[in-house]
């Protein structure tokens, strides 16, 4: 049995490394991929960095240059400029801050030649404890959302808390999972990163076109994929909230069996996830005996998703 497991592990790692090699060889030398990663340069409170170091390594291994979008520094700079312009008028400062944050973030993105932005997960919540100790991250997230809306040449990928931050910035309601239903023990199990949460992916979506390389649809054209999941909040899936989401140009393209919105696409083709597909790559060298085949397929799909995020707009970058 141990020999059999070792063989399976080696086969999986071979496939994984081969897929990564494919991605490394793909970029055009003239295609300069610079990813802005929303994270502080110095950790100022517990859990602020989470797994962002490993995310940096993953992006670099796939051919990208990574620059930190330090939301604390950018917020401080915007506040200083607002104070200076308002001449210490507190009421005027508050009115100027939002405008200044956007200007500072936009200039930073332009000066750093950032053409991709990744909003990773966040330990803190928007609707329930633990709440963030400062508003800095969310204010910078709001600015990024506005900038990307205005400049579709910047690709955006959001994961878990990053997705929730985008939705909150757009006025979409984010609620605690506990408000939707009492989480039973069986549902708690997939919050452990050793478990995989099932996602149903809508046909004729950009996401389904990536998945179709690795999985077969059901008779209705829907795909089933499996990603690690760990979150305490979600997009409120009420009819009113979904209608508002759709009116803003978003499509719900992934759902879990209990109705949680797991993936959305925006009007520019960016895809955002409630779960943590990236953790399949970050922890790929650890063998999980449970759902081995599902994990293997999900990892290859994740590589395709990150590859799409990094390189689908290469022609636009080269010509700009």
Automatic annotation (TrEMBL):
Signal peptide region: none
Domain Glutamine amidotransferase: 110-284
SUPFAM superfamilies: Class I glutamine amidotransferase-like
A Pfam family reported for this protein in Swiss-Prot or TrEMBL: GATase
Protein name: Glutamine amidotransferase domain-containing protein
InterPro entries per UniProt: Class_I_gatase-like (IPR029062), GATASE (IPR017926)
């Amino acid at each position: 049995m141990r020999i059999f497991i070792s063989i399976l592990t080696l086969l999986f790692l071979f496939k994984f490394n081969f897929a990564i090699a494919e991605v490394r060889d793909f970029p055009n030398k003239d295609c300069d991929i610079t990813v802005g990663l929303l994270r502080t340069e110095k950790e100022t409170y517990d859990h602020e960095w989470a797994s962002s170091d490993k995310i940096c390594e993953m992006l670099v291994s796939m051919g990208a240059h990574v620059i930190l979008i330090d939301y604390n520094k950018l917020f401080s700079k915007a506040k200083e400029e607002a104070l200076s312009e308002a001449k210490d008028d507190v009421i005027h400062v508050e009115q100027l801050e939002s405008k200044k944050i956007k200007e500072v973030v936009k200039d930073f993105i332009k000066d750093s030649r950032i053409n991709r932005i990744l909003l990773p997960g966040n330990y803190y919540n928007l609707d329930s404890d633990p709440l963030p100790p400062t508003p800095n991250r969310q204010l910078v997230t709001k600015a990024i959302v506005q900038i990307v809306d205005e400049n579709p040449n910047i690709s955006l990928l959001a994961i878990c808390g990053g997705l929730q931050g985008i939705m909150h910035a757009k006025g979409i309601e984010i609620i605690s999972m506990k408000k939707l239903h009492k989480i039973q023990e069986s549902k708690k199990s997939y919050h452990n990163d050793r478990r995989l949460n099932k996602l149903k992916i809508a046909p004729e979506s950009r996401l389904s076109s990536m998945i179709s390389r690795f999985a077969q649809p059901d008779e209705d054209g829907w795909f089933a994929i499996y990603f690690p999941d760990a979150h305490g909040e979600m997009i409120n899936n009420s009819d009113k909230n979904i209608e508002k989401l759709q009116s803003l140009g978003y499509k719900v393209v992934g759902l879990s069996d209990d109705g949680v919105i797991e993936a959305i696409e925006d009007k520019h083709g960016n895809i955002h996830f409630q779960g943590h597909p990236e953790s399949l790559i970050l922890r790929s060298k650890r063998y999980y005996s449970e759902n081995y085949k599902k994990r293997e397929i999900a990892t290859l799909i994740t590589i395709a998703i990150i590859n799409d995020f990094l390189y689908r707009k290469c022609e636009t970058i080269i010509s700009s």
